[in-house]
Every structure is written in C-alpha cells, then in structure tokens.
Specification:
about 290 residues; 5-stranded mixed beta sheet; alpha+beta; elongated; 5 strands
C-alpha cells in the first residue's frame, strides 16, 4: 500500500481521463506529476540536457576567444610597434624597462612605471620628464589607429606630502592620469575613446609588500576589448516594421477565424432556439391524458 512506485495498471492503461485537463494515464508526460506516482523530481535534469549545457559552455568559450582574436592580433602589433620605436630612438631605448605590456580579461594593460633612478614624472608634480612625454606621444600615435576604448589611471607610492591638506597623492595621481590623456589626444586619439580617467593614489600598489617601491608610481592604460554588437532584431519584429502590410493581413485572418468550440461544451449550447410546431397529435395526447 505504501509502495511509492507506480502500479502496473498506471503504466499499461492508456485510457484518457474523463477530465480533459488531466494527464493521459500510461503516458510519461510530465514525469511523476501523477499524485499516485513517486514524489516529484523538481531538480531532475535529463542527461542529454546536462551534456548540452557543457557543450554550449565550451562553444561559448570558443566563441569568446574567436571574438577577441582580432583584438589580440592588433594588440601584439601595437606592442611590436612601440618596442621597435623605442629601440630606434636613443632617448627611448633606456625606457624599455619602464614599459610593461600585459594581457588581461578586459583587454591589453600597458603600464608606464618608475624605476629606481629613472622617474617618469618630476617628483611630486604632474609634469612629465622629456623622454616620458616622447614615449607617450609614440604610444598615442599607435593607439590612434585602433577603435578600442581606453581607461587611464594614475598611481603613487605611499610617501605622503608634508602638507596633505592642500595637495595629496589623490590629486597627484589624478593629475598625472589627466596629463597622459592630454598627450594622447594631442597625438591623435579621439576624445570619445577615453571613457575614464582616475587617480588611485597608493591604494593599488604594484609591489604590495613594499608600499614605497618606485614602481608603485605608474600610469595604467587599459586598451579594452571591443564590445559585442547588439543582437539583430527578431524576425517577428522586423516583419512588423518592414512588411507591415503582410503583418496586418495575418492579424486580419486571425480575427476572422471563428473561435474553436471547447470539447467540454455541448453542441446544443451553440444552437439557436427555434419555435416548435404543434400538430393535431399533440392535442389528442393532451385530451387522452385529461380523461
């Protein structure tokens, strides 16, 4: 009596229920939805669905790699151009150790860092050293040929100003990032491609174990991957806009189609009443009944 498994007649009997809303007995439509069967499996997942999910995840990963493939090629070409320009310029060649190219999930990260004895900016100011400005000009010319969006962030070490009430590392890092933006725009980078300029002071050090390390003073430039284009409108929507006449005709056809009579209603409900004709036999029957 307490066995939760379906009885044999539930599996073999294929007679439809008298209630049209109920499931057809014997079919497995809606697994275990029959109250007499086992408990509902709310978390049940078909093996095929699980396999498809894994397959779709792999396809999505491959699609993302293919999507960024063109950007990655351009980033490598950008890096090659900058390094080649620095090698060919005696003033820039010593700065090769001050430039770091790194691939990130957002795109390409370019960092212009200070080295011991070779600072990119004058101490405590947003004024660039001569070689630094020349380096950023070359970088800006190479970036001008790309459509990718840019973000620029300034960083400092943990050495504080003597009087931080008027000017501190937050101001300095923001001013250096903004100075970099101005050089890029003067070198041909479109103004609307720079989407964020920020100063982070000493909150994101490159060498966390040594907050006063010179390399913590740097400019970070993110060359972002291009965003995926918006999905094309659905076919139904385009039909409504581009083929308005066809859509109207379809709607008109639907409106003129008579409603289907539900199977639970009687046909007599849709029959107009008619006057019954009375003949002589009816009156004869009444007279016999009165006797």
């Amino acid at each position: 009596m307490d066995d939760p498994t379906p009885a044999n007649w539930e599996i073999n009997d294929t007679t439809a229920s008298t209630d049209p809303k109920e499931k057809v007995l014997g079919s497995q439509e809606g697994k275990f939805e029959n109250p007499a069967a086992a408990a509902p499996l709310k978390d049940y997942v078909e093996p095929s669905e699980s396999a498809n999910a894994v397959k779709n995840g792999e396809q999505s990963s491959k699609a993302q790699q293919n999507e960024h493939a063109q950007d990655d090629i351009k980033f490598k070409e950008l890096q090659r151009e900058i390094l080649q320009a620095m090698e060919q310029n005696p003033d820039l060649d010593p700065l090769k150790q001050n430039v770091i190219f790194e691939k990130s999930p957002e795109g390409l990260l370019i960092q212009i860092i200070d080295q011991k004895g070779r600072a990119m900016f004058h101490s405590g100011r947003a004024e660039m050293q001569g070689p630094t400005e020349l380096l950023l000009q070359n970088l800006g010319k190479s970036l001008a040929s790309l459509p990718n969006k840019l973000t620029i962030a300034g960083h400092t070490d943990a050495v504080r100003f003597a009087d931080g009430r008027k000017y501190d590392n937050w101001d300095l890092s923001a001013d250096r990032a903004n100075a970099t933006r101005r050089v890029f725009e003067a070198s041909g980078v479109a103004r609307n491609r720079v989407i964020r300029v920020s100063g982070l002071a000493d909150t994101d050090p490159l060498v966390p174990e040594n907050p006063v390390d010179p390399s913590n003073r740097r400019i970070s430039i993110y060359v972002q991957y291009q965003k995926t284009k918006d999905a094309a409108p659905q076919k139904e929507a385009s039909t409504a806009v581009d083929s308005q006449g066809s859509s109207v005709a379809a709607n008109s056809t639907e409106s003129t189609t008579p409603p289907e009579v539900p199977s639970t209603q009687l046909a007599a409900d849709y029959t107009e009443p008619r006057d019954a004709t009375l003949d002589g036999q009816v009156f004869q029957n009444l007279r016999n009944a009165l006797r």
